[in-house]
């Protein structure tokens, strides 16, 4: 059974080109299912059936898993069994046809324009670290890319002459423009900071920690949290908040949803529709608050 999981992990990384977050989530769910199988003396995961999956869902409900969590676990198991079927390890997918209650998608938290400007102004630019941090924050808001993408960027992915960032994920590519302030901050970092902290000639990552090693997701998360605190912003800000803010502000200022979809790298427009719902909610609230006959 462990061999199946290892093969599945390799498939996610090398065939599907899934992000690290996706792989970690899938494998965690599959390993938890494997533990449950072991507790029920099921030694071959390919021998499970719909009845067993039903029992597992009931078990998840019993231990208090939310509908959203159950939905995610079923998605992980469905993908895993689909892989087993495609490789001939399993005849049918026992998860097909299983559904949980539809979960109402929570609207993302975003910063308003003044909060973004306040956050971006926090790195003072007087030392190496603050110059680097300023460049990272500007790049994040300029492009709306994910943390996993920003820490994987190489120097060659940035073209400051024409002001773009070139993202590659397997066969998928996308090009996102950079606004002038972001270009200026990144150029300052590349000219004045990176040569001083990156001493290895073969290190091609755009951003590193202060010892010249590739930055971690946790390290970047802490940087964003730090500047949110120094800015006095009370919202719970994560790097993904700037991604959401990027998309919401583009839509609010007239960008097409289809263009935002391409810049975010969404596979389907339905994933981008959440920002339209966010704008609708915002305008509905404003109407209720300010229209004289709405109260």
Outline the structure in words:
The protein is mostly helical and 295 residues long. The protein has 2 domains: 2-86, Tyrosine recombinase, N-terminal domain (DNA polymerase, domain 1); 113-288, Orthogonal Bundle (hpI Integrase, Chain A). The chain is 58% helix and 5% strand. It has 13 helices and 3 strands, in the order αααααααβββαααααα. It has helices at 2-14, 20-39, 50-62, 67-86, 113-120, 128-143, 147-152, 180-192, 194-197, 217-231, 239-252, 257-264, 269-290; strands at 158-159, 164-169, 172-177. The protein has a 3-stranded antiparallel sheet with strand order 1-2-3, with no helix packed on it. α11 (239-252) packs across α13 and α12 (257-264) packs across α13. The mean pLDDT is 87.
Helix content: 55-70%
Q: What is the quaternary state of this protein?
A: single chain
Provide a count of the helices: 13
Poorly predicted parts: none
Question: H/E element string?
Answer: HHHHHHHEEEHHHHHH
Q: What spatial form do the alpha-carbon principal axes imply?
A: globular
Rg is 23 Å
CATH superfamily of the largest domain: Intergrase catalytic core
CATH top-level class of the largest domain = Mainly Alpha
Task: Give the arrangement of secondary structure elements.
Layout: H1 2-14, H2 20-39, H3 50-62, H4 67-86, H5 113-120, H6 128-143, H7 147-152, E1 158-159, E2 164-169, E3 172-177, H8 180-192, H9 194-197, H10 217-231, H11 239-252, H12 257-264, H13 269-290
Helix pairs in contact: 1-2, 2-4, 6-8, 6-11, 11-13, 12-13
